[in-house]
Amino acid sequence: MGGWSVRVTDDHAADACAPGESVAVETGGLATSSTTVRRWKRGQRALHHIIDPATGCSSESCWRTVSVAGANCTDANIASTAAIVRGQWAGPWLEALGMPARLVRHDGSVIRVGGWANPAGQ
To answer: What predicted TM-score, i.e. pTM, was given to this entire model?
Structure first.
């Protein structure tokens, strides 16, 4: 595997054994946005830090984690966060932008778009 080996998981502080996959970054940047960390409760409602600008509330997305490869880290971060907010329309949007991405649903199922390769053995 050439380039920088990066482990993509739901939590940036997770160890190498956490569910996820390793990718090689040869050029550009990689970013992951997730609703699984930076969470809190207000009353009985679970909240997180990714805000839907249409509602002003935590995004209610079908994705728990989105990782995106881009020309640089800024582009990748913007796209990964926007994908969480875009919900079910994120995959086609990222495909149209030509941005490889790994989108993880709340049940753990993974969708790969834009040329994000399946890990070895899958």
So the answer is: 0.84
